[in-house]
């Protein structure tokens, strides 16, 4: 390839990257007011042969119990961090190093904000894709924190997260498992649904899997503790 052709190639590459960057940034800002029409995870569910069960609902149509259960179980520092729980990340790295030698299990450090970035703008999965995803995940997490605010992040999270095979969002999950709107979910019902989130295809809500049966009472105890924190009370108003 000649020098002139190489310059042309890199110029076009730069233009494409710039267009993708600007358009994705605008899309991220628009999602401050509009729910995403579809996500990569939802498309993946369709390709895997699952039906797409989804029904977006607003903040006021989601039970306080669900919001509290999500924070208590998934991200207890949600109201105070900047999108990343650096203490949890450090702890997770230490656990990974320890597991190499001791073969012990360790938890993740992904915040609700990061999970929104992955679910709305990027993709799930491990392997090399996980490492390729890190830089855009950081960017979209910060965009959400800067432009959406905590309530909108939690609202979108509870509407797009997978809560069963082909079941996305708390409204679809509530109607499937308990035959009611998400607005009327009890404390125990909310805890059961949120307990399935580590692996909603494996940890079923109905019939209640062993994991959900064990985890949901723990989540309810954590909900009681979190409900007494003024910062959480202010966030969930």
Q: What is the general shape?
A: globular
Task: Give the helix proportion (percent range).
Answer: 55-70%
If strands are numbered along the chain, what order do they take across the biggest sheet? 1-3-2
Task: List the total number of helices.
Answer: 12
Which class do the helix and strand fractions yield?
A: mainly alpha
How many angstroms does the end-to-end distance come to?
Answer: 61 Å
CATH H-level superfamily: Biosynthetic peptidoglycan transglycosylase-like
Number of domains: 1
The rounded Rg comes to: 19 Å
What report would you give on this structure?
The chain is an all-alpha fold. It has a single domain, classed as Orthogonal Bundle (Penicillin binding protein transpeptidase fold), CATH 1.10.3810.10. Helix content is 62%, strand content 3%. It has helices at residues 3-30, 40-47, 64-74, 86-102, 112-121, 128-132, 134-147, 150-160, 170-178, 187-195, 210-227, 230-235; strands at 53-54, 162-164, 167-168. Strands 1-3-2 form a 3-stranded mixed beta sheet, covered by helices on one side. Helix 3 (64-74) packs across helix 11 and helix 5 crosses helix 8. The longest helix is centred in the N-terminal third of the chain and has 28 residues, at 3-30. Residues 98-107 have low confidence and may be disordered.
Characteristic terms for this protein:
single chain; Penicillin binding protein transpeptidase fold; 12 helices; three-stranded mixed beta sheet; mainly alpha; globular; 237 residues
């Amino acid at each position: 390839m000649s020098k002139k052709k190489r310059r042309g190639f890199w110029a076009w590459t730069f233009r494409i990257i710039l267009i993708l960057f600007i358009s994705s940034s605008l899309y991220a800002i628009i999602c401050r007011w509009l729910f995403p029409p579809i996500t990569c995870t939802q498309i993946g569910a369709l390709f895997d042969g699952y039906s797409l069960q989804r029904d977006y609902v607003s903040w006021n149509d989601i039970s306080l119990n669900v919001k509290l259960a999500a924070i208590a179980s998934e991200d207890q520092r949600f109201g105070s961090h900047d999108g990343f729980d650096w203490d949890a990340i450090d702890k997770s790295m230490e656990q990974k190093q320890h597991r190499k030698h001791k073969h012990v299990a360790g938890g993740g450090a992904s915040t609700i904000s990061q999970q929104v970035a992955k679910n709305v703008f990027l993709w799930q999965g491990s392997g090399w894709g996980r490492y390729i995803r890190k830089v855009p995940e950081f960017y979209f997490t910060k965009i959400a924190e800067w432009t959406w605010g905590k309530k909108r992040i939690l609202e979108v999270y509870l509407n797009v997260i997978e809560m069963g095979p082909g079941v996305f969002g708390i409204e679809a999950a509530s109607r499937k498992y308990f035959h009611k709107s998400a607005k009327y979910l009890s404390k125990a019902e909310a805890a059961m649904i949120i307990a399935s989130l580590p692996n909603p295809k494996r940890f079923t809500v109905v019939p209640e899997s062993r994991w959900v049966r064990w985890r949901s009472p723990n989540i309810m105890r954590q909900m009681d503790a979190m409900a007494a924190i003024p910062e959480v009370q202010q966030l969930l108003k």
